[in-house]
Amino acid sequence: MILATEMVFQPQVLFTIVMAALFGLFVGAVPGLTATMATALLVPVTFFMEPVPAIGAIVTCSAMAIFAGDIPGTLLRIPGTPASAAYTDEAYAMTRKGQGEVALGANLLFSALGGLFGTAVLIVAAPSLAEVALKFSSFEYFWLACLGLTCATVVGTGSPIKGLVSLLLGLFVATVGLNNPAGVPRFTFGSVDLMGGIDFIPAMIGLFAVSEIFRYVLGMSPDTSGAQTRVGNLFTGWGRMMKQYWRQSIRGNIVGTLIGALPGAGADIASWVSYAVSKRLSRTPEKFGTGHVEGIIESTSSNNAALGGAWVPALVFGIPGDSITAIVIGVLYLKGMNPGPTIFINNPQDIYAVFLIFILANIFMVPAGWAAIKSARLLMRVPRNVLMPTILLFCVVGSFAINNSVFGITIMLVFGLLGFVMEENGFPIAPTILGIVLGPMLEENFVTSMIKSDGSFAGFFERPISGTLGVLTLALWVVPLALFLWRKFSANRVSPHATRG
Amino acid sequence: MKRRTFIGTCATALTVALSAGGALLGMAAAPALAAYPERPITLIVPWGAGGGTDATARIVGSLLEKTLGQPVNVVNRTGGSGVVGHQAIASSAADGYTLGIATVEIGMMHWQGLTQLTHTDYTPLALMNEDPAGLQVAQDSKFASAKDFLEAVRAKPGSMKASGTGQGGIWHLALAGMLDEADIPPQSVPWVPSQGAAPGLQDLVAGGVQVVPCSLPEARSLIDAGRVKSLAIMAKERNPLFPNIPTLKEQTGIDWTMAAWRGIVGPKGLPQDVSDRLIKALKEVYDSSDFKDFMNQRGFGMIYASGDQFSNFMSESNESLGTVMKAVGIAKQ
C-alpha cells in the first residue's frame, strides 16, 4: 500500500492524471464524442508510458468524460455521452427554470460520490461480485432487457400509447442493418452504409439537439437566455440535497455498480434504469420531467458508479464490463498487468495504485468539474442566434466523428426532423432512444437463448437467476394490470356509497 | 484556474477538431507525390475500438508514424460484420494516404453474398499477424481431449452448442470445418451467434454454451484464471506461449487448420513507388522491438508476408474458406 502511494504521488503521474482529466472533460462535453472514444484516443499515447500513469490516464479520462456529458445535456439539451441521455430532458427543464446551477451542481457532486462508491465496491468485493456477473448468460440478459423496456413506460411523459409508439419506433430503428444474430441484412435497400445499422449516437444527437435547433429556427422555442445566464454558486444546496436525497444517491450507486459489473450492460443502461426506478419509487413522481432534481441525482450517481463496476469482471476475469474496459484489458496486457484472479496476488502494489487513482480522479472531478461548468457558463452569454449555428456545427462534427462518415450526418438530420415532428405532436422521444439502446440486446439474447434451448421457452425459467428475473419481470407487467382490472371490477360490483362504509 | 482551464479546453478542442478534420482534408487535397508521404495518413479499421484488430492497427499506426515521419490517424469504420470498413478502404483514393487493416473476413463476406468485395480489390502491403483457432471448453467440462469431444458429438449430435463470433464468422467456420473433416455433419454442433469471443467465452463459463473455438489470445485471461481450458489448437505447430496445448493433428490425426489473420492493405492501384515505400516502412515496423514486445505481450501470433506473397496468401485463404463455407452450407448458392 505504501509502495502504491509512492507510485501514484509522483509528479509525472499526477501531471498525466491532470492532463487526462482535461482531455476527458473536453471529449465528454462535445456531443458525439463518447467516453469510449476518449479512451481509444488515449491508447496510442499509453503505449509509451509506465503502467501506472497509463492506466491512471484512462481511469481519469473516462470518469471525467461521463460527468462532462452532463454539461451540454443540461445547458443545451445535447447529451455529451449516451450515459447522460436518460436525464437530459429533466436537466434541461431545470435550466429553463433558471436552476441550471442546481442541476449541474447535483451532477458534479453525485457523479463524484457515485464514482467513489463504485471504486469502494471494486476494492472490497471485486472477486465475489465477478463470480456473480459471470453467471449471467443470454437467458438472464434477455430478462434484463425486458426490465429495461419496462422503463419506457416510466420515463416517457404523457400518454402511455404515445410512449409505446415511440418505443416501437426505437425498436424498429434497432433492426436496421446486418448486426443481428443471423447476420442477415434488414431494411438496407442495398446500401452499404445501412448495412452497418443506424448508429445510436448521431440518432441521439438528432433527436435531442437538432430537433431543438429546428424549433428555434421556426421561432417556436421560448427565449430562455435570461434565465440561463446565471450559473451562480454551484455548491448551493449541496448539503440540503445530500440530506434530502441520500437514499436516491445510494440506490443509484448500488444499481449502477451492479449493472456496470454485468459484462452485457454498462453506464448507459444503468442510467436509464436508475432514472425509472427513481420515478417509480418517488413520493412525487408527478414532478419528474418538469425539472426536478431527484431523478437526476439517482441516475447521475448510477452512471458514474457503473464505471467502477465495469472494472470488476475486467480485472478478475479479463471480460470487459463495457466498451471502455474492453480497451483497458488490452492496455493491461501490454503493461504486463495480466487480468485474472492473480492480479491481486502478483504485484499487488500495481492494482492498489490503480485503486488510488480511481479515488484521486473522483476527488479531482470536483474542482475540475467546477472549472468546466464555470467556463461552459460563458456559452450562455452568447446570443442565441450565434449559439444555435455553433451547436449545429458541433452536432455535425460529433455525428461525423463517430464513424468518420458523412452518413452519420444524414442520420442526425433525419432523426432531428423525426424528433421535431414527434415532440410537436406530443410523442416523447426518450422511449425511442431506449428502444434503440435495448433493441439489439433484446433480440440477440432472445434468439441465442432459443438456439441454446432448442426452441423451448422453458429455458428462460430453468436457470435460477434467469427464473427469478423472469418471474420478477412478468410480475411487474401483470400485477399493475391485474390491480387495475380488480379495482375496476370491484368498483362496478360495489356501489360508490358502500365503499365509504 | 477558470481562465486557464478554458484555454486548455480550447487547445484540446483544436487538436481534436484538427485530427477529426484530418480525414476530410485527406480526401480533398490533390495527390501530389513529390516525396511520399507529405501529409497525414489515415488507417481504417473495420472493427470496433478495443478489439484485437483495433489494438494491432493502433500499434502499427504509431510505429508507422515514427518511420514515415507523418501522423497516422487510426479510424474505426465498424458495422455490417466488417463489410462497411472493408468497403471504405477499397473505395478510398489510391494515393497512399488512406490505408486499412484487412482481416480474414475479406475472404468470407463475398461467399455469403454480403458484398462484391474480394481481396483483389486491394493493393496488398504487409501481412502482420495470424492467430489459429483453439478448442476451448469450461474448466469443469468432462472432456480431457479433442478426441473425447469429437466422440461425444458423434454419439449425441445437437447436445452441445458453440459460440464465439457471429453466424458464419471465422470461428464458426473453424469448428464446422473440423467436424466436416472428421466426417461428422457440421450441424451436429449448433452455432450460437455472439458479438465476439469475449461474450462467447463468458457464456461458456456461465454454462450457456459448451465449446468456444476462438483463438488462444482471446481466451487467455480465462485460461489463466482457471475457468476455461483449451483442448487443442487448429494449427500446424504448438503456440510457444501455450506449449502444453497440443495441435488438433497430434491428438486426433485430423489435418485441419484455421486461423484469423490481419494485414495492412491499400485500395487497388496504389502507385508502385508508394507501395514500395510503405512495404519498406511496414517491414521496419514488423522488425522493431516495440512491435515484437506488443505482439508477445498480447499473445498475438506473428507472421510476415508482403506484396505478391501476401497476395497469394489471401488468395489461398479465400479458396479454402470458400470450400468450407460451401461444405457447411453457409455460402450463398
UniProtKB/TrEMBL annotation, chain B:
CDD domains registered for this protein in UniProt: PBP2_Bug_TTT
Domain of life of the native organism: Bacteria
Keyword Signal included in the entry's annotation: yes
Keyword Nucleus attributed: no
Leader peptide range in chain numbering: 1-34
InterPro entries reported for this sequence: BUG (IPR005064), Bug_dom1 (IPR042100)
Keywords: Signal
Family classification: Belongs to the UPF0065 (bug) family.
Protein name: Twin-arginine translocation pathway signal protein
